[in-house]
């Protein structure tokens, strides 16, 4: 009977994650098509949401301190991506990732030996720092060669993958389905909104679908209802990761 009571809560959590992710994508595209400052504000807010909610998702101690350690490097990376001269828009991002991870280790040292979940906190928060900083790719992508349509194609592919993740089917079915649909959405969006070649758009869609399917699997394996900060973080963390993914695929396959 307990499992029956928990099932609707978990289902609501998965829907919340998907809708938060779609809202984040919409905010990013709105920033892309308005001003650079607006996009930076959105990227900083996403980094803050990822940082605040990630310790809640991991269910680890020292949530406030680790939230700051995760969020601040991501916000700084987004601001740097908007201000540094090109073409190295993400040159400062690895430095902020390194600083964030060093801060995670410092926090764990200050906590002292014998504290609960030190290993989980260290490894999990290092991943959180990485995800927070990857959101700077959206800002870099908007500055790179001025082709905003690539980011629109990226957002559409990610949105299709997120919508597929809302289906209440097993991960073994939803994951390949999301990859296929995102792989189809990329070329279709490229044909409609830009002159991006079909093959790079399809490759990008499949990769995005795989990334978002992995995040869905993480939420499933957690096996417990999510509170609001954790749901916000899990909804926006994959959106953040897609930003740098779009930037580097744009540089390698399209530009």
TrEMBL record:
The chain crosses the membrane at residues 12-33, 39-58, 65-86, 92-110, 122-144, 150-167, 174-192, 198-215, 227-249. The keyword Transmembrane applies. Keywords: Membrane, Transmembrane, Transmembrane helix. This is Permease. It comes from Arthrobacter nitrophenolicus. The lineage of its organism: Bacteria, Bacillati, Actinomycetota, Actinomycetes, Micrococcales.
